Amino acid sequence: MSRAPIATTAKRRALGPGVEYEFERLTLSREFSRNVVTRMLVDRAEHGGWELDRVRIYPDGTRKVVLRRKIIRQRATVFA
Question: Were both Cys, which of 3, 15, 37, 68 would link to 53 (CB 3.0–4.6 Å)?
């Protein structure tokens, strides 16, 4: 069984004043089992700071997953 590639894209979007998220879209082939997908998403959550935003499973078995993580910006410190 050959593994199909995982397609990913990243995008940034502000949802409100002062809150900005980075989104990553994953397209997973039906060849990946539920356990493999779960392990992969848990790994991304633990080590990359991502949280699950949306999962869509299509009739052909393809999964489209959207992950997000908050962008934390540092404010410049002004010394007087």
Answer: 68
Q: In total, how many domains does the chain have?
A: 1
Residue ranges making up the domain that contains 26: 7-70
Taking the chain (80 residues) in runs of 10, the rounded mean pLDDT of each run is 56 67 93 94 93 95 94 74
| Amino acid found at 46 | E
Residue 21 lies in a domain: yes
- Confidence (pTM): 0.71
> What is the pLDDT at residue 15?
62
Please say whether the dihedral angle defined by the alpha carbons of residues 55, 44, 27 and 35, taken in this order, is positive or negative: negative
Residues 6+ apart with CB under 8 A from 31: 1, 2, 3, 4
19: domain CATH number?
3.30.200
